[in-house]
Design brief:
CATH architecture: 2-Layer Sandwich
Number of strands: 4
Number of helices: 5
CATH topology: 60s Ribosomal Protein L30, Chain: A
Structural class: alpha+beta
Length: 154
């Protein structure tokens, strides 16, 4: 009988422990519910991870320059963070052409980060061309979303 009673008490204690929620503490390094500083989520929420391009172009637009400026400042705050810039293209054109265009876009974004003082060894590039579309569809809205370079924390 004692074993059943002890087993029941242990089960109740276990369930009670599972149902409790941890208390939130503010360490001064950001909100307990916000993104962890220096994380991918922090980059996306507080800086922006995407630079868009015009059709058949790898020239960084003014809005992209300001995004890359913010990314460079963010990378300056988090010196141990490395990133990868992935270049994409819309579905028009050959696979080979779009891989090359995606690489030129990734390189253009990387070059601007380096020009802003980010060590080149911290920024790698890759091209997905048209092989990994961001938006599905065969219209200008989808194509505009796919003409992009995306910075990701590595």
């Amino acid at each position: 009988m004692k074993m059943k009673l002890l087993g029941a008490i242990a089960a109740v204690a276990l369930v009670a422990a599972c149902e409790s929620t941890p208390t939130e503490t503010n360490t001064g390094a950001g909100s307990a519910t916000g993104p962890r500083p220096g994380s991918q989520e922090d980059l996306v929420v507080n800086v922006g991870d995407r630079v868009f391009f015009d059709f058949d172009s790898f020239s960084v637009r003014p809005d992209g320059r300001s995004t890359l400026q913010r990314q460079a400042e963010w990378l300056g705050r988090y010196g141990s963070v490395n990133v990868q810039v992935a270049g994409h293209a819309d579905e028009r054109g050959t696979r080979e052409y779009n891989l090359a265009l995606g690489q030129r876009r990734a390189n253009a974004a990387r070059d601007l980060l380096v020009a802003q003082g980010v060590a080149g060894a911290r920024v790698s590039t890759i091209s997905f061309g048209k092989d990994r579309p961001i938006a599905l569809g065969s219209n200008e809205e989808a194509w505009a979303q796919n003409r992009v370079a995306i910075t990701s924390v590595r």
